[in-house]
Amino acid sequence: MTAPLTPPHQPQPNDPWQATPSGSHAVPGGRPGDERRTEIRQGAVIAVLLTAAGLALGLLWLWLAPRVPLVSDDTAVFLKNSESEDAIGADGTFVLLGLAFGLVTGAAVFLFRRRGGIPLVVGLALGGILGSLLAWGIGTWFGPTSDVVAHAKEVGKGVTFDAPLELHAVGAAILAWPVAAMIAHLGLTALFGPRDPEPEWEVHHGAPYDSGQQTPHPGPEGAGGYPGWPDKGQGNS
After folding, report:
1. Tens digit of each residue's pLDDT (9 = 90 or more) over 122-178
2. How does pLDDT run across 31-79, given as a tens digit for each residue?
3. φ, ψ for residue 159 (rounded to 5)?
4. CA 92 – CA 104 distance, rounded (Å)
5. How far apart are CA 198 and CA 32, in angstroms?
6. SS (H, E, C) 178-208
7. Helical (H) or strand (E) element with 35
8. Is 139 among the domain residues?
9. Domain coverage including residue 169
C-alpha cells in the first residue's frame, strides 16, 4: 500500500508563507497578537514624532506667513491697507504647509512600515492634529503680541506695526495635515502594499450528483432488496 497523498487544495503543514486564518500578514513563526501589539507601539511612536514635527511647522508658519500692517491714531487701530488680502494669507500659508507636511509624513510612514494597519492610520491622524495644534500655538506665541491696544500705545501715533498671527478657519487649518497624511498613506498602501493571498477553491473529483435520480435502498420486498423486483427463487407468473 502506498501512503495517501496530500490533496492539492489543502495547504502544506510546513509552509512558512501560508496566510494565517485571520488574514493578517504575520511573519513566519509570529503570532497575530504580537503583530498587533507591534503595530500599536509603532502607531504611538508615529503620533509622538508627528507631534514633535509640529515645532517645525510652527516655525515655518511664523517665517512665511504674511504680516498684516496696522496703524493707530491714538483713538483706534486701523488696517493700514483695508483692501489687502494679507488677513487671510496666514490661513492659506498654514493650510499649504499642513498639506505638505501631511504628504511627506504619510509617505515616510509607508516607507517605514510598507503596509497598512489601523494603529498606523490612527497614529498619523492623531499626530497630525496634535502637531497642527502645537504649530498654531508656536506661531501665535512667538509672533506679534495679541495685545493690539498696548502695542499701538507703545509704538505711538501713525507708526505701522504688525497684527498678531491668527487663524480664522481653524478647522480647515488643523485638519489639513492629518487628512493629507492619511490620504497619502492609504493611497501608497493600495498601490504598492502587499496583496492578500487569493482564495483557493476546493475541487471534488467524481461524477456529478443528479438530484433527480433516486438512490435504491433495501426494502422488504424480494430477496434483491428493491421494491417490485421478483425473488430469484420465484418464477414468473
Report:
1. 999 999 999 999 999 999 999 888 888 787 788 777 788 788 898 989 999 999 999
2. 667 888 888 999 999 999 999 999 999 999 999 999 888 888 877 777 7
3. -95, 130
4. 18
5. 20
6. HHHHHHHHHHHHHHHCCCCCCCCCCCCCCCC
7. helix 32-64
8. yes
9. 54-64+86-192
